[in-house]
# Entry
Amino acid sequence: MQKPNPKDGAPLYEFIDKKNETEMFKVGRVFAPDRGHNRGDRNLGGEHFEVWDRNGNWLGVANLDGSKNIAKTNIVKNKVARSIKEIL
# Structure
């Protein structure tokens, strides 16, 4: 996928490997490394990915192992504003 995350310009990727699916990384979902604030947030899980469904609806934050980062996901108050529908 050759499109950037409008929030921070990070490249968007589509998950395509069914045999390695996890809680957050499933075939058809789109993800991007969160470049906005990875430094200095180790107490909330450090580096992570933002994850959207195939329609561009924001699903939450994934840790590097594909598990859901509940603390970071719950911080976001306006999940609709994180949508990327207009660029998919």
User: Anything to note?
Assistant: The CA atoms of residues 38 and 55 lie 26 Å apart. The mean pLDDT is 88. The longest strand covers residues 58-62.
